[in-house]
Amino acid sequence: MTRYPMALASAAGASVFLVAGFPAVSHAVAPVPCDTAQLVSAIQTANSGTGDTLSLAAGCTYHLAAPFSGVDGLPPITKPIVIQGNGATVVRDATASGPFRIFDVAPTGDLTLRVLTVKDGLLSAASDTGAGILVQAGGFLTAATSTVSGSTAASDGGGISVNGTATLTGTTVTGNTGRDGGGLFTNAAASLTVTGSRVTSNHATRDGGALDAVGALSRITSTVVSGNVSARDGGGIEYDNGVNTLDTSTLTDNSSTSTTAGLGAGIYNAADLTLNSTNVSTNTSPGTNALGGGLYNVSGEKATLNSSTVTGSTLTGTNAKGAGVFNEGTLTLDRTAVTDNRATGTASQTGGLYNSSGTVTLTSSTVTGNRSATAPGGLRTDVAITLATSAIVGNTPTNCTGSPVVPAGCVG
Where would one find the signal peptide in this protein (predicted)? Predict the structure, then answer.
């Protein structure tokens, strides 16, 4: 889903996402014994009425040995259904016949998962997304204190694919694999809210190791995005269009494994992106001509970092640029630090911030302790930028010397 940049080939503030779901319906709690056939039957019964609350057997593992229909392991959710997992697991059995996902939330469906593990879905067709959970356009998913793990899609969204609305709270998405969006994938017009969660150790065979958000409205708050890998761009997250916010979150130890490029080992941004009090750290790429170890911002797009840090990221490939940040669009840093990033490969340039003809404003910010093989180590820009009460100091081999344009106030 990457839009490649010109160099290689383009509202801040708080907001609240209100999910207008289905009318509240009061249901008696229906216990579901530790039996897969009983779980299937309970979902069918709930779908045939006005929905239901299903309470699974505590600690039970419900093994799905065959698809219910098509590539759906369970009956598609068509009504408001709450599943109280009680520590149970729903898993595609290792001996199951044929590929299938675990849950499918239909356009009329509203699925709530509580304390449940969804595991080991498998999809092999290029047209099938969401190996763990698919949320169709119009559908709603709420996952609380749950886990989506070990699922694999040949297409997008190894763990969860969202075309409707998804809200994850205290939930872990881990060890999933997909083409774009190893852990999570959102399509145009989707809405994704993630709070107090962990998105870790997912793998994208193309872009967006943890998340690929395409044309979506997304907000991630107080969440750890760590140890994810992409084969191309956006080792942690790839944003393609849409409006996206990261609040008080951590993106750390993500990587792009491409040996020929690799854009945005931490974040690849081709959208409207705001980071508030967020730490982007120790992300890596080995690629020749890799750009933006922490953040890559595409031409024509906007990235705003408020009270955030981009630190400790490393580009090891030949001719890599901008180990901290590489910018071609509009970049605003306010009370933000770009520190201790490294571009170590032969002819690599600018450990801190590399601006390729974009618009950059730094206010009360610092670019310090960055290092590159060739000058400048701190900040390089092709055009004039705005520095307001900001410091570019302590970088190696130089702060700004060697830049085509040396910003006023940057010495050495």
Answer: 1-28
